[in-house]
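# nightly structure sweep
# worker-07 picked up a monomer target from the shared queue
# config: single-sequence mode, recycle default, output format = structure tokens
# input follows
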Amino acid sequence: MHIHILGICGAFMGGVALLAREAGYSVSGSDANVYPPMSTQLEEQGIVLHEGYDSEPLDPAPDLIVVGNAMSRGNPAVEYMLDRGLPYISGPAFLADYVLRDHWVLAVAGTHGKTTTSSMLAAILDYAKLEPGFLIGGVPGNFGLSARLGNKPFFVVEADEYDTAFFDKRSKFVHYRPRTLILNNLEYDHADIFPDLDAIKRQFHHLLRTVPGNGLVLSNSAEPHLDEVLEMGCWTPQESFALQSETGWGTADIAPDGSSFDVTLDGERVGRIEWSQSGLHNVANALAAIGAARHAGVPVEHAIEGLNQFAGVKRRMELRAKINDIAIYDDFAHHPTAISTTLEGVRGRIGEGRIFAVLEPRSNTMRMGVHREALADSLKEADRIFIFHPQDLDWPLAEAMSSLGDRVEISDEVDTLVDWVAAAAMPDDQIIVMSNGGFGDIHERLAVALAEAGEVQ
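# output follows
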């Protein structure tokens, strides 16, 4: 069976491609935005990539076309497919019908932390020798790839609330039918498809309707919007988690940077984590992963041992280079809350050292200006701030950043940002690059510029 995937280099669709290939299907794909790490993964697995959306890879016709949610009417490949009546399916529906059937699905939903929590949960199950399958919107360091079939019954999936396809406007996650569901948090995002927060809550409620009565819902009790979703109806046993909680999963004796902490259950200490991760948001992610793993039969002590060996996720505070004692990190943060928690985690780790935030406001929601009032405050932990100004930004960026004073510099040229950062950086500075895209390969360009600056000195 030959499957062709439209939008194959997206994090989700790339994972679908890897699963289909592993299942024995012949897989090819088209995309207009091809960049690592996904493109590298696909090529290493022998999947043929076609640049652009012309009709060439659809003639002769594949047996099935899997359509990514980035595709829309008017796209040449989509129009060719529809005009000729070629068989097609959405990515989430393909996953549900061809992969998840007969599995115990463990799903991780929420505005933030889905990728990291899913990676933690898969790592715990793997440490327990359960060899889970997974599809994650990033590349976990423990595995080196974003998806694998694994062995039944367990399959971990990052459960995204974004819409399914141009012909199916439900959230992706309603297709997955999890038995174990983590609800990490809930804020307004994806303004390009959701008119308000209530619309997102409704989709989360639809997700809850699919969890069976013999399943488990783990919800962050520090998130009031999740409480509102649960009040809309939940037919499944529940457990809660929060950093400071006497009921459910909680913590004690947390290091300032989150690098170590006690895990508690209903106020009783059940173990201690000492790991390579940082940030209080990752502490909360760990609690959720431990609780979900226990539901799958993993003893708490084994889950903690697994997390102590957790290797992180690419593009989640990933150290890309260290040049002349200046560290360059890559992080996927693109929402004010994620930006804030990332920088707070760095501050907790380094104390009084200097933090450089280098930001690309790339997401649809950010470009529309939905978060412009919160953006400046989310960057307050940074000592120097360098922001790329996209040409299609619909709001006055400089005006929104005015409260940051002379700490912030803005340019519509990546090369200019690189020059500014390289000129200002000194040994022991931490440079945090934040974007949900490729950002013009700025990480490598910064490394080169810093190395050249060091040679001049």
